[in-house]
Design goal:
The complex is a heterodimer of chains A (147) and B (127). Chain A is mainly α. Chain A has a single domain, classed as Up-down Bundle (3 helical TM bundles of succinate and fumarate reductases). Helices cover 67% and strands 0% of the residues of chain A. Chain A has 5 helices and no strands. In chain A, helix 2 crosses helix 4 and helix 4 runs antiparallel to helix 5. Chain B is elongated, with a radius of gyration of 18 Å. In chain B, helix 1 packs across helix 3. Chain B has 5 helices and no strands. The longest helix of chain B is centred in the first third of the chain and has 30 residues. Helix content of chain B is 77%, strand content 0%. Classes of the chains: A mainly alpha (147), B mainly alpha (127). At the A-B interface, helix 2, helix 3, helix 4 and helix 5 of A face helix 1, helix 2, helix 3 and helix 4 of B.
Chain lengths: 147, 127
């Protein structure tokens, strides 16, 4: 894959921002998908973000149940301890970790004028760091099932 | 070579929203990973009970921590949903409907979340 800056004009502040996806052409982007790492990163960043946002709303509701006292709260908290949910919880951990680490990549690309040049190397860095954080996390969380 | 999102050039709100996502994102990186490690990694879910939360909320530190986490995560998350939705919704009217719905959800969840964090009384749990 060739590394090339897109439409970078020297006069533009912060190195030029006319990169990538035109917001009004998301479908065109998807239809012209060429499987570049940055596109995968953006797609997974969105899906993990939406998933975590949905979980956040559910999580706020279960926390609000504290106000109903211990019996109500513990009944709901107990529901989350079923093994099938631990699987979802491990997925949640993976989603949070990828979204967080790739978020640093997004910020680097946005704030560092050479960021877009190095975005693919940054992407593989994100993959490695995410796995280093996720694998032990998943092992510990899975082992919690039998504790 | 794709930046995740072009820096918005039109409209003050979008520029501030873009900046907020970066700054809150970096703050949330620490806040969420620490929260997750304590609540999900080092504590089995079966130990997260009313009494466990009551013990955490007995110190103002964790109440403030959770309040900051709630505010940043909720606004970051709902603004993220809005940005994704705007890629698929092009008419001005429907964008306004989407944004209004999302900010209403944000407001309601912010109020009920902050209410329980600030008003929770652990003594209720000992009864």
């Amino acid at each position: 894959m060739a590394l090339r800056p897109l439409n970078r004009s020297p006069g533009e502040p912060m190195g030029g921002w006319r990169l990538g996806i035109d917001r009004s052409r998301a479908w065109t982007w998807f239809a012209n998908y060429k499987g570049q790492t940055g596109q995968w990163a953006q797609l997974v960043h969105r899906l993990t973000g939406l998933g975590v946002a949905l979980f956040l709303l559910v999580h706020i509701i279960d926390t609000v149940l504290l106000g109903w006292g211990p019996s109500v709260y513990n009944a709901v908290a107990g529901f989350w301890t079923q093994p099938w949910f631990i699987g979802l919880e491990i997925l949640l951990a993976g989603a949070v970790i990828f979204h967080a680490i790739n978020g640093i990549r997004v910020a680097i690309i946005d704030f560092w004028d050479l960021g877009s040049i190095y975005q693919e190397r940054l992407f593989w860095g994100v993959v490695v760091i995410s796995l280093v954080l996720f694998v032990p996390t998943a092992v510990v969380m899975a082992s919690n099932i039998w504790r | 070579m794709y930046a995740a999102r072009s820096r918005p050039t039109a409209g003050n709100f979008e520029l501030w929203a873009w900046l907020f996502m970066r700054i809150s994102g970096i703050a949330l990186l620490l806040l969420v990973l620490i929260h997750f490690a304590i609540m999900h990694l080092f504590t089995p879910l079966s130990d997260v009970t009313f009494d466990f939360v009551a013990a955490r909320f007995s110190t103002p530190f964790w109440r403030i921590y959770d309040l900051v986490l709630l505010a940043l995560a909720l606004v970051h998350g709902m603004n993220g949903v809005r940005v994704v939705a705007d890629d698929y919704i092009h008419s001005r009217g429907w964008r306004l409907v989407t944004a209004t719905t999302l900010w209403t959800i944000t407001f309601i969840f912010m109020v009920i979340g902050a209410q329980i964090i600030l008003s929770f009384q652990p003594s209720v749990g000992t009864g």
